[in-house]
Amino acid sequence: RVEASVIYTSTSEDFFQILVLLYDVTEIYAVEKMQMDFLSNASHELKTPVTAISGFAETLQAGAKDDPGTLNQFLDIIQKESKRLTELIQDVLSISRIESQSVSQRKIASIDLAELVDEQLRALQQMASVKHITLVNQIPAGTVQLTDESKLVEVIKNLVSNAIKYNREAGSVTIDYEATAQDWTLKVQDTGIGIAQSEQARIFERFYRVDSSRTQQVVNGTGLGLAIVTELVHSLQGQISVTSQRGVGSTFSVSFPIKQVQ
Ligand code: ADP
């Protein structure tokens, strides 16, 4: 996409001169479109629980509260939708936070990866225990260099909680580490439901959730987790990818350059 502006013209008896500047605005338009799509998706997603909450509350006020069964059922729905609204607001806010963070805020830190992963696994242990899932940390001792440890914590938390959420009963989640001369990679491998090839690129989009009854009904989520992870990884100069097989499991890999640029 190109925009043009004429910045100089002159005419003489023999010839006519014109100076035109052409701007390549493809990227600017793409970013603007992404922001517009995000806003319209976000307002749609936020309206859904609000409509449910006010609708059920109104129905209760109109008389449905007199039936104890209906009262309890509607209160449950109101509570569930409020929780969903809170999660959505938190996720939308964290996307806006990452987008507004300036490059100058980055500082390179030396991180003990094995310890950091241990801490996160401890925090998620209870969630795993409910489904009898084993969490395994295979990261060797040593440190990595990274700008902003808190972003990496957020990435690990999101990937491991997905690996638990979309896992089978008594499955496992293994965190692994690999390094080449150029970059290091953290891998989160699960034994869960897996992701069809056709869905593997889409799961990183904002608000996208795999539309299978298994994931939509049984597992709560906003569809923003992996979009947040992707933004965090990119802001740390890294890359994210997934390999997966339906019914076998998925492996999410995040790679970062060994030499961080501040
Ligand atoms: P959420 O978990 O809130 O739905 P995410 O953005 O984290 O949102 O994930 C998007 C979708 O990708 C999920 O709804 C799920 O269908 C799929 N997904 C994510 N992680 C996994 C995983 N480890 N195994 C299988 N499916 C997954």
UniProtKB/TrEMBL annotation:
Keyword terms of this UniProt record: Kinase, Membrane, Phosphoprotein, Transferase, Transmembrane, Transmembrane helix, Two-component regulatory system
EC number: 2.7.13.3
Positions of the Histidine kinase domain: 41-260
GO molecular function: kinase activity
Reactions this protein catalyses: ATP + protein L-histidine = ADP + protein N-phospho-L-histidine
Subcellular location: Membrane
Main location: membrane
Keyword Cytoplasm on entry: no
tRNA processing listed as a keyword: no
Name of the protein described by the UniProt record: histidine kinase
Originating organism: Secundilactobacillus angelensis
Residue span relative to the full protein: 200 to 461 of 461
